[in-house]
Predict the 3D structure of the following.
Amino acid sequence: MPVSVCGMANGNGEYAIECSGVTRRFGSFTAVSKLDLKVKKGEIFGFLGPNGAGKTTTIKMLTTLLTITEGSAKVAGLEVSTHGAGIRSKIGVVPQQFALFDELTPLENLRYIGELYGMTKTEIKRRSDELLKIVGIYDKRDIPSGGFSGGMKQKLSVAAGLLHSPEILFMDEPTTGLDPQSRLTLRDLTKQLNDQGITIVYTTHDMEEADKLCDRIAIMNLSKLVALGTPHELRAILKEGRTIEIQLERKDKKLVEEAGKLIRATSIEYMGGTILMHTNEPTAGLVSMLSHFFERKKMGVNEIMVKEPSLEDVFVYVTK
C-alpha cells in the first residue's frame, strides 16, 4: 500500500484523471502494478520516481499511447480503453525531446498541428499568434525552429500542446537539459497556464522543481505508487520531522543530552564537531529556546540551525 497523506475530495466531475487498478505488462514484466490514483481538476500534479519506476508507462497509458493490461482509467471524464480519440482532443502533450519539425518555422509547425486537429485556418492563425506571444517567441515566428535553443524549442512545444485548447496538459520532464534561466522561465509559464484553469500532469527528476511547482505529488517505485500527497504532507512522512544542527565551543555530552530533553529530541547524533538533534516539535522557537539554554549554562555556541526534511529525503526514504 502506498503512503497516502492526501484526503481525496468527494463529488462527481471533480477529477481530471481517475485510475483504478491500472496495470501494464510487457510479457512477464510488470511496468505498472495496480495503480489507484485521482488527479483533481485544476491542479499541478507531479510524478516522481527513479528510472524504471513506471512514470513514463503511466503517462503513455493516460495519453492513449499504450493500452492498459488490467484495470481502468478515465481522462477528462472519458474511458481510456474506449474513447481514445475523444481523450486526445482534450489533452495536450509536451514531450521531453523536441518532437516538431526543425525545418519548419513556429507558425508552420503550429499550422500543421492545427490541421491535424481539424481547426480552421482562421482559428489556427489566431491561436498561433496568441500562444507564441504567451510563450515569448512571437518574434521568432518566421524562423526555422531547428536553430532554436533548447529553451525556445520547449516553449514551442508548449504552444503546440496548447493549440487546440486542451483541458489537461501532460509535461514529461520538460526542463531536462535546459539552462537555469530557461528552466525558471518554463516553470513560471507552467504556473501561468495552471492559473488559467488547465490541469497539468508534470513528470520530473528535479526534487526542488516538484516541491515548488506541484500541488500534489505521486512517488512511484518498482512499478507501484509508494507515496502520495502535497509536498508538505510528504515531508511529514518522515518520523523525525526536523534536524537541529548545533556547533558548540566545547564538548559536553551531558549538557547536550539535557538540551535534547528540553526540545524533546527523538535522537541525538554526533558528527565530528556537529551535534544533530532530531525532533518532531514545531520549528518556531526551537533556536531561541536552545540559545537561551546554552547561554544560561555558560556554553558558547558557534551555530544553531534548523534543517527541515526535504522532498529528496522523503524520496530516498520511500524508495529505499
